[in-house]
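Lab meeting notes turned into a lecture example. A postdoc, R.K., suggested we walk through two folding results consecutively so the class can see how the record format repeats. The first protein's sequence and structure tokens come next.
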Amino acid sequence: MMHLCLPFRYGLEMPAYLTSTATANQLEVSPKALLDLIAAELIPEPLTIGRQKLFEAETITRFLEERTEASRPRPPGYVVRVHSKMPAKDDDERKWIGYAQTYDAGLSQDENDAIRRNALRAWWPVREPSRYVGQVLVATLASFVVATYRIDGFTEGYGRVSFRVSEAPRDAAEILDGHRLRMRPGPISLPLEP
């Protein structure tokens, strides 16, 4: 792992920093996924010096320590792999798709939570969606769980599924929320492995 220590300033030692490549390697994510983690406000903006982007090593270490692998057994459910928020195109039901801590700084946390729920619940390629009703919908960004909901129902359209969701059961949320969920590479949505 490459640490970069910036020079002493005024007799004070600067914290250790990681380059973008070293940060992505430590997090075990792609460079694109690292940008998504920043855009979603899960990792702070890096310090920019010229063309180099530097991340405080302690912050990245703490991020990983707080987001351990989700324990097993896991509740039955369905996983959707999301990116950071972006405007929804050709969708009358929602303004945003993808994940963010905050969609609109002028709104309350509850209002941002409602936007997030709407942004993450649709439109996913799902085989036999009826088998997931009553289970959990787990949204991951770069393998980190960013949201967990209970699937209450679904609507099919455009060859995809839009789930109706509500708050996840507490036991499922405790196992999954804020943890890491490493899944096999592949599709953007898939059943949750127990």
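The second example is placed directly after the first for contrast:
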Amino acid sequence: MNRASSPPRPRRLLFVAISLVVITSLVILGCFVLSGEDEAPGPPSATSPPSATPSASDRSTLTLPDDADAVSLEFDTAEKGPVLVALSVTATFTASTGERRALYTIMGMSCGSMEGPTNTQSVNGTENLTHQTTRQMTQLLSYDVETPGKHRCNATVNAPNWDPEYGDAELSIEAEIRLVAPEASGIYYAATDSEHPIVLDPGEEVAAVEESFPLEAGPTGDLSVLSGTHVTTCTITNGSRDQTEANLCTEPRLDREGSTMSTKTVVQQLDGDTVCRTVTADRSLDSIDHLVHHRLLDSRTRIDGFLSDPCGDRLRVTHEIANDGPAALVVHRASTKAVAIAH
């Protein structure tokens, strides 16, 4: 006997209808969200990292005697004015003669325009490197851009005086050129009043670099202070000429013991002619013996909050060098620098 089918129950029909409505709503909502993501992406994060500061680095090993084009940096600038460029060289000298001989080394950097008049500007420094001692040396150049556009800086390391008869020798170098704080609110580059060298007898000191500027604080109120010092101790006659006609190291200024010397960089805020805030940014003590003879020294310090709530309207930067002897000390002012940077 066949049974007739019973009609659907009202509760089951209601459940099915509600389920269909929910599923349809979810599908429509999902399509809307996906469509919105494709058509209207969110804005980029406000904390996106800035573009990297222009820099270039390279490494090489020289079989002496030799010289090397250590590294080259190309960069663009849209404005005229000074650009602070730093060359850092880390060098290790190794010789079969051991510690009996040092290596006279010249490191330098030149910058010029690639699109207009070249306007080449350069800086050079010297140091005698000793066997299996690694030295880090820095040179600073305030490059005055006269033609906006593309520019190139080239660095060289030269060791011209090594005689192969001394024995086998090599020089390993790592070199980097970089623009220093191109985004800074203010860069105060203290120049010397003369590029002629100064000879300090034992007990003498000199402000090799001193200059004042209109004070311009950055958003953080911090101040970085960089310095570079290039000196020669008078241990032998003809120890240095530095573009002069006469020898700078002569009797009775000579002493084979070399020189003990110190440096310090002082930064002051001025209210008119009155000093209202002072800090010694860096202080160093170094001994230069007969073997080393030439020395490149550098320092970098950041002073938190020095320009916050300034008390004056001008900033003065002074880089001082003192010689304790016993030999006289030549200060090469053309390659001795001090720079303050407002952040």
